[in-house]
Design brief:
By secondary structure, the protein is an alpha+beta fold. It has four helices and twelve strands. It is globular.
Length: 221
């Protein structure tokens, strides 16, 4: 598409459940380059992805569905794919967060590109509980006075959950770490993660990893 003149405002609703997977970062970068000028206003202008450990069991129940034979069929291969997935549009109470949230990624739209990027965050658990995975949500800047947040209040996007392989008992003061990577596989946004749980003696008591690349390859054969 070609326009006769550069535009003053660019608006995009290509916001995925985690904020990124509809490719908003590269779409806005391309749109600003092709159609904008140095003072063009972008809506949204910035997007950030946050996460925190949780005791919510919703996604764990979904992955567990494939563990048992159904009508004589064995779904264990699907069960393995299910563990390497993010589960969206879940309503997860703030009361089920086990620590203060951390920012995974933040992008200035129109300027940044979505290149392979990874980050590591750590969380100190507030109270004794069971940790089942990580909650992910996004916030987007629409204007100086308006922000969109997929956690509160309730909205179309809701929250995303990365489930652990197993539920882990955890005590106050123990630490959960998450290394999270965003990249592209076959032009699709892909996520990979590694998590570790440490006790109060700094001893590793549990760990695991996941990668949505296998699901993307499976679904795009």
């Amino acid at each position: 598409m070609k326009l006769g003149n550069k535009v003053d405002i660019i608006v995009s609703e290509t916001i995925g459940f985690t904020g990124l997977e509809e490719n908003i970062v590269d779409i806005m970068s391309d749109a600003k380059k092709r159609f904008g000028h140095k003072n063009t206003i972008l809506i949204p202008s910035q997007i950030s992805v946050r996460c925190a450990p949780t005791c919510d069991t919703t996604a764990n129940k979904l992955t567990g569905f494939w563990q048992k034979p159904i009508n004589g069929f064995n779904y264990k291969k699907i069960a393995q794919l299910a563990k390497n997935n993010l589960y969206g549009r879940l309503l997860i109470s703030h009361k089920k967060l086990l620590s203060n949230p951390a920012v995974l990624f933040s992008y200035k739209l129109g300027t940044d590109r979505l290149l392979k990027k990874d980050t590591k965050v750590t969380f100190k658990i507030n109270n004794e509980s069971s940790v089942t995975g990580f909650v992910i949500w996004f916030s987007a800047v629409l204007s100086d006075s308006q922000k969109l947040n997929s956690y509160k209040p309730r909205n179309h996007w809701q929250q995303v959950l990365i489930p652990f392989d197993n539920t882990i008992k955890i005590k106050a003061g123990e630490v959960v770490s998450l290394q999270f990577t965003v990249s592209k596989v076959k032009k699709y946004i892909s996520y990979a993660w590694t998590y570790e749980v440490y006790n109060n003696s700094n001893k590793l008591i549990h760990g695991g990893k996941g990668d949505t690349a296998n699901i993307i390859k499976f679904c795009t054969k």
